[in-house]
Every structure is written in structure tokens, then in C-alpha cells.
Design goal:
The complex is a heterodimer of chains A (258) and B (252).
Chain A (H helix, E strand, L loop, with lengths): L1 H5 L1 H17 L5 H18 L11 H26 L1 H4 L1 H4 L8 H29 L10 H25 L3 H14 L15 H6 L3 H13 L5 H25 L8
Chain B lengths: L2 E14 L6 H10 L6 E15 L3 E6 L5 H9 L6 E7 L2 E4 L12 H11 L4 H15 L14 H12 L6 E5 L7 H17 L2 E5 L3 H7 L2 E6 L2 E7 H15 L5
Parallel strand pairs in B: 3-7, 3-8, 5-6, 6-7
Antiparallel strand pairs in B: 1-2, 1-4, 8-9
Classes of the chains: A mainly alpha (258), B alpha/beta (252).
Chain lengths: 258, 252
Amino acid sequence: MAAIWKCRYFWLSLVQMDLRSRYRRSLLGLGWSLLHPIAMTTVLCLVFPHFFAKADLDVHSYAPMVLVGLSFWSFVSSSMLLGCQCLFQGERYIRQFPAPMAIYPLRIVLGSSFHFAMALLVVVVLRFGMIGFSGLFSFISLLPTFILMFILGWSLAVLAGFVTTYFPDMQHLTEVGLQIVFYATPIIYPADTIKGNLGWLIGCNPLTPYIALLRSPLLYGEFPSLTHYLAALASTTIIAGAATFTLVRLQKTIIFQL
Amino acid sequence: MTSIDLEDVNLFFRVRQHRRIALKDFIVNQMFRKSVNPYMEVRALSSINLTIRQGDRLGIVGHNGAGKSTLLKLLAGVYPPTAGTRTVNGVVSSLFDLQLGFELEASGWENIAYRGYLQGETPWTIKTKLEEIAEFSELGEFLNNPVRHYSSGMLVRLAFSVASAIDPEILLVDEVLSTVDLAFQKKCRLRMEEMIAKANLIVMVSHDLELLSQFCNRAIWLDRGRIRRAGPTADVIAEYTAAMSGALPKAA
């Protein structure tokens, strides 16, 4: 950790460059990265409510709900997908400077976090427009959520990066895997819609508690339940443990695989 | 006290005959048949014992593929030794693979900062050095362009300027100056003399034997990953040259 902190200016400036070069290329700038989740939400809002028979699921409550889900999802998926390439991307530095390997996935997850923050800003504006400023106090509960999310994203990027270095087809497998997980996570539907046989799948999904942790304060002004925190903490600890183990075991020798 | 100690260091590369294998192949191979893409072990360095003390300037000579650059990367901490111990006291700064290590989309100025940060600079210390680095590189207007458009000589100029702007404790140099033009080479030599005067410890790889005998007080001759000869620069180089001229067919 101390070594990571020591070269903080290095990875911070790389993140800054990543963001800048991404926005430099497009006329719309920052808006461009927001366009995707917003467009997606709009499409879903037009189509999806027809599938749900529930009367209380109108567009007004559905739109912000989906937007929260999609923002979280793009954080997770971009951490993993970009994470796959992170060590190849950092190869030029790895070959010259013995900096800790964790900074390359960190670069990825910091970028994803920035985009997530932007998307969340839209959600918050939307929320104020809809339910006003009630329950603002519950926003405090987001702080531990963000910390957990950050650790989750970082760990996933570490794992994706190392595995892809050994097995280059991991990127494609990740894409397929993410597609499956996308539908197994209550992103475009409320968590309680699907019951029965598939219900357990959503219950086991380590991402499900995160959705609840984000939605409760953001959309309903409520504190999320402790169970969700514990579930998120447990699953994140396991994933972070795996990532730490990978780093400790492989970070010295990964250069031979590059 | 700056020092480098290598104790019975070995380095093996495990390389595959073909490219990396896909996960699906890996699973299939492990389950159903023996691997068709076995590991090969390459002995890059074997039983290296080396002690370099403060004030030493060590030159490394040897054929291509003798392990010179590998040894340097091991000293820098980029490669971990497979066996044996490596002890380094002091901050290492290295000049190798200079064309790598750039963000191609970023400008020359930005890349100066990135490389500076990796060498332990902070935004405040780098600011004071920025002008000096730019001036030394003589790249002028080009510094505003993305590094993508640079020639390899320009990249070396930039990298050398950054790397030599810090006061290194331990400096590792690999055959870097062959791609830049003569005028800049001269400048670099001068700068290197300055650095050598300041740096506590230098390890240098070069095929330019004249350069080595000018700068180094000790030398080693690497041959297929082993130290074949170590001693004062003049002796090692004399022996190396003798062996080389013996190996070459005499011109009729």
C-alpha cells in the first residue's frame, strides 16, 4: 500500500490523461459518456413497463430506478472489461520500473468511478425533481457503499487483468459472462419482481445487495437494511481476498507472461 | 551507503513454444491430452555473484543474448531472481527500453511529467525541472505534439533528458545512445560524465568498448548468462577483444 501511495502522482496523472483523451475526442465531451445510460434508460422506459403487470410500476419511478442500476452496472462491467487489458496497457512501464502492479487496475477503476459519479449526478437531479429533498439524510449511507464499490471494482480489475495476461481469451469469456450476470442482476427490473425458480439466482448474486444499497437512499430516501450491507461486505471481502492473493502470489512474476 | 549485492542469482525464463494458450485450450489439454505447447526453460542468468559498492562504475560486455540487459533489469527490480538473493541499497533509476514507457497520445510535456513521477518526482519538484529538461532535449515545439509522432531518436532524447534530470543514486544504463545523432550523443556523454561524478553507483551495458573504458573502473564479461571474466575494465576488455578477434575468420 505504501508503494502505491508513493507513486500516486504517476497513476493519478494517468487517470487524468485517460479521462481527458476520452473527452477530447468527442464534441459532446462529458455528455457523451452520460448519453449511453440515459439513452438506454429511455429505451427501456418505452418498452419495459409493458412487460410488467404491476400497476405501481409507472415510468416516473421506473426511469430513475433503471438509471441507478445501469450506472452501477457500467461501473462494474467497465472495471472488468477495461481491467482485462490493464496490464498489457501498463506493459511499457512494467518493463522499466518496478512499480506495484496494483496501480494499473487502480487506473482503470478510478476512471470508471469518475463516470459512475457523473451518472449518479444525473440520478440525484432526477430524484430532486421527482420526490424533492425528503430523506436527504439517508445519503450518508452511500459513503460506505461507495467505499465497498471501489474495493469491489478494483479487485475485479485486478483479477481480470491477471487472468487475461495468462489466458488471452478471458476478455471474450468476460464479455459473455457479464451478459449473463447483467440479466441475473436486478438492474432493469425491481429486485422483487422475479420469484420462484430464478429468485435464488438473484439472491446469490453478489451484485444484488449493491443495487439495493444504492436505490434505497437515492430513490426512496430510506436507509438500506443492514442485511444488504453485510451481504455486500461479505461478497466484496471474498473477491478482494482473491485479488490480494493473486497480487501477492503473482505480481513479481507476471512480467514473464507479458 | 549505496550498494548492490547479488548472491548466487539465477534467472530462468519459462517460455512457451507458441503463443499464450487460450483458457479453453488449457482446460481441454489438461483434461484430455498432454500439452502440445510445452514450456521451455531458458537459462538467462546462472550463478551470478556480484558486489558493487559506492563509487563503482561497472561496465558489462558480452555477445547479443548473453544476458546483459536481463542482468540490468534484474538489478532494477523489474525481473525477480528465480533463485538467489538481490539486495539493493539506494534509489535506482534506469535508462533502458527508452522507446517504451511513453503514453503515445499524450504530449511531450505530459510524458515528461509521467516519467518524472515514476522516478519519484512530485508535481512541485517537476515544475522546477521542466524547463531544464525541455531545453536539454532540444525538442522545442515538438513537445506540444503527441509522442505518437516522434521518431525513435526523439523519444530517446526525451527519455534521456528526463532520466538524467534527477540526481540518481544508482544509475543503470543500457545501450541507449545508439539511436540519437552524434551531436546529441556528445551532449549525453557530457551529461553522463556529470551524472557519473554525482551518482554513487553506475552499471552500464554497451558494445562501445571505448565508451566503457572511458567511464568504467570495473567490468564484467557475460557469456551465456555466466560471468566469464570480472576485473578492471582494461583487463576485461583486452581479453574480450582478444577472444572476439580470435573467433572472427581472418580476412584473406
